[in-house]
Amino acid sequence: MSQKKILIVGYGSMGRRRIRIISDLMPGAAFICVDSNPDRQKQAAARGFKAYGSLKESIAESPDMAFVCTSPGRHADIILFLLRNGIHTFTELNLTADRYDEIKDAAKEYNSVVFISSTLIYKCQMEKFKEIADGQDKPITYIYHVGQYLPDWHPWESYKDFFIGKKETNGIRELLAIQLPWMIRAFGRVDHIEVSYQQCTGLDIEFPDIVILNITHEGGNIGVFVVDVVSRKAVTRLEIIGEEVHLFWDGHNDDLYCLNFETKELEQVKVYESEEHAKGYADHITEEPYREEMKEFLKAIDGKKVRYGLDEDAYVLDIIDKIEDKYSSAMHL
Question: Whole-model pTM?
Fold first, then answer.
């Protein structure tokens, strides 16, 4: 089998993570890196990768597939360029559905696969939540809180210089885009959302720092989802409540518990036999979900159906737009 050439667009932390994992999945692959930052080009070259400052230059290497690892909100042009050059394309999280119809048409016309990352869908805990929700005869309720103080996301730089501080790609929007895909997959498509919001910090931002969603799902499940960029201690906390289930999860890989109704004791639910951690990342961030979605991308290239695609992502981003519409006009009266 000929050596596969992998194009990495954006040699930041996610680009390096994708290289690390694809090296295991496809031993012997050759990497081509594109980054407008000269220092990152030097870093890539120092590892023996071919490095370029522009996408057009890199295409001369005839890559077989590409991973778009640039900041959210700037993917559409890159994706379209790659697809139109016949390159199968994996893109990190998008925060806008900009030109999705055009992207779908290009993928079809040039016989190229486009794959949208939604890493939490591939996390075993989220599959467990879906299994539990699907297995209930009656509706369930959940309470879910995800938050972290905005300046702590990248403490080495100002949040105003990072995309999560910008109105169009803000931190609240990113958390919604990360979390809603698995929630909708587990609890059902959205029937109705009530939105409450607040600004309770002195952060220099043009969006709320806390948003509370009361979500009614098709099929009857309901939940409260709290998203914030205020919590000085990062939090991911979920409780699922039903007549036949009471589950607690604090966001890590070893703290998922279900109540045993007979003993009234909490029993740990183990979802991973072992865990793979990358150096420099928090202990709740494991490599397995990233690896699984990359495997699914490779399967998609072979014609297999994927769990999450452009249509599902467009649906989620449309919901987020509607959520933002409910508070953006009120904040600027």
Answer: 0.91
